[in-house]
Amino acid sequence: MNEADTHNTSDDAREELVAYLDGELDPPAVDLVEKRLADDAEYRRELRQLQVAWDMLDELPKPAVCERFTQTTVEMVALSAEKELEEVKEHQQRRRPWIWALAGAGALAIAGASYLASSHWLSRPNQALLRDLPVIEDIDLYKVADSVEFLEQMDRKGLFAEKGLFDEETGNAP
Residues 63-121: pLDDT tens digits? Predict the structure, then answer.
């Protein structure tokens, strides 16, 4: 082992012992530390040094914190929370017009698509009537005809085309 490995192992052991002294280890880890303490003299020496440091910390005077310090700390936290709340409100207020604009645009798009779909769907029967308009206008004449062959003969002679009731280029009645 080189010196860097020994240093890293020592740091790991120190962290493990500090956690042991603080009571932060779970029971299986405590068992491992205690087994290593029983077997390793260097590990025990490290624990004694840390224990001495812990004991010395207990002898240091406790700092006195005045009521004013607690009050100002709580006020700072309250001001910070208030500022954060204001920022959230501002963010929501800036976003609100965009949300309404997008909702309005979506509603207009849905309304437009609905209009186009219903317009197309509802105009289908009218398209058929418009296509059949020349026949409908002359229905009285067709009732008098004895057969379809008679009507076909009249069409071949051009009798129906002379009326000009239906413009085939545009598909509309004049």
Answer: 777 788 788 888 888 888 899 989 988 888 888 888 888 888 999 999 999 888 887 77
Judge whether 148 lies within some domain: yes
What distance in Å separates the CA atoms of residue 138 and residue 40, rounded to the nearest whole number? 117
Q: Which domain holds residue 155?
A: 127-163
Contact, 21 vs 50, CB < 8 A? yes
What is the tally of structural domains in the chain? Answer: 3
Please tell me the distance from the alpha carbon of residue 47 to that of residue 13, in angstroms, as a whole number.
Answer: 9
Report pTM: 0.34
Cα distance between the two ends of the chain:
106
Task: Using the structure block, give the residue that is written with the tokens 């812990």.
Answer: 54
